[in-house]
Amino acid sequence: YIPDVFKDKYADNEEEADRWYLDQDNNRRPPELLPRDEVARAINTEVKAGRGTEHGGVFLDVSKRIPAEVIKKRLPSMWHQFYELAGVDITKEPMEVGPTCHYVMGGVEVDPDTAAAIGVPGLFAAGEVAGGMHGSNRLGGNSLTDLLVFGRRAGMGASEYVKKNSAIPVSETTVHAASRKIEAPFTREGGENSYSLHAELQEITHNLVGIIRTGSELEEAIKKIADIRKRSANVSVSGGRKFNPGFHLAFDLDNMLLVAESTAKSALARQESRGGHTRDDYPTMNNKWRQLNLISSFDGEKVSVKEQALPTLPKELFSLFDVHELEKYMTPEEVAKGGSN
User: Fold this and answer.
1) Are residues 305 and 174 in the same domain?
2) Residue 206 main-chain phi, psi, to 5 deg
3) Domain count of the chain?
4) Which domain holds residue 270?
5) What is the per-residue pLDDT for 157?
6) 12, 71, 90, 141: which is deepest, by most CB within 10 A?
7) What is the pTM of this model?
8) E strands within the chain?
9) Virtual CA dihedral for 222, 225, 226, 232, nearest 10 degrees?
10) Residue 317 in domain
């Protein structure tokens, strides 16, 4: 399960992996510490082969490798959560683990210097809601760094925008249209249930647009998402307007459908496996796709996806990397160019 690009950094035998806990300078890391997408793929392979747990996961056992006092000192939250919530003492027995949705690498397309949304004046985005910062797979710990750096840029960008622009008038027609949309679920009778549609969408994306993807399953998901979108236009809500979760979910569905359709169509278009995106029918990385982002747009009825070339890595950043590491991912032409001025 150790990809070629990581073979020099991760142990290929248990003895060396065990030694790493006490001597990290002279031993390679245990393979269970591979990037989360690699671990997720390995778990999925084991489960599909019939070697998983009854709940569709695998067992992770640190009790036989690390002393109990070290586990409690270095993994206090994990020990406490398993013990309190599952009755499992990870200092004495294995814990059952499995991959799940953790972080969205995609998001609003923004200008990297100001965090201003592309094509939507006045909108600024930072953190998980913004796309492009983390490439195909976020490294552990970088979410907080992202917020600190780009949160500041978003705040400064928004401040400058307000200083340079006057108030934008909003037409009465737009206000009345928004008001009618808000009122509509309360005026309908016998319409679709927002909770049921949410549950259906959740099941579709989990089963068909999950960790391991195939073209046929993605195509099926896109059709089912389109059907839910049609039905969501007829959602009805009972009860009043004061804190009505069903009403809130009726409007959340618009955003959920947008993200689900964008993800499914982008995953279908990207015919390779890279980072958090794994295609069973295209199991390897493709240098052509490394140089492209997929940009989604919505016309009010459906999502469209277009390819957009990535900018060339600037020379000052290129020079910070070991060229042999870059050769694992870049084309020979890109490496020879050595970044842009």
Assistant:
1) yes
2) -65, -45
3) 3
4) 169-309
5) 97
6) 90
7) 0.83
8) 58-60, 95-97, 212-213, 278-279, 292-298, 303-309
9) -170
10) no
φ/ψ of residue 202, rounded to 5: -60, -45
Tens digit of pLDDT for each residue in 210-244? 888 999 999 999 999 999 999 999 999 988 888 88
Q: Annotated catalytic sites, by residue?
A: 36
Please check the confidence at residue 258 and state whether its pLDDT lies above 80.
yes
Give the chain's radius of gyration (CA, Å): 24
- The pLDDT tens digits for 14-58 are 999 989 988 999 999 999 899 888 888 889 889 888 999 998 899
**Residues 16, 30 contacting (CB under 8 angstroms):** no
The residues that bridge with 212 in the sheet, in sequence order, are 278
In 3D, which of 136, 99, 96 has the Cα closest to residue 277?
Answer: 136
Q: In terms of domains, do 25 and 86 share one?
A: yes
- CATH number of the domain at 209, please: 1.20.58.100
User: Does any domain span residue 175?
Assistant: yes
pLDDT of residue 82: 95
Answer yes or no: is pLDDT of 341 > 80. no
Q: Does residue 322 belong to any structural domain of this protein?
A: no
Q: Is 33 helix (H, G, I), strand (E, B) or coil?
A: helix
The CATH number that applies at residue 19 is: 3.90.700.10
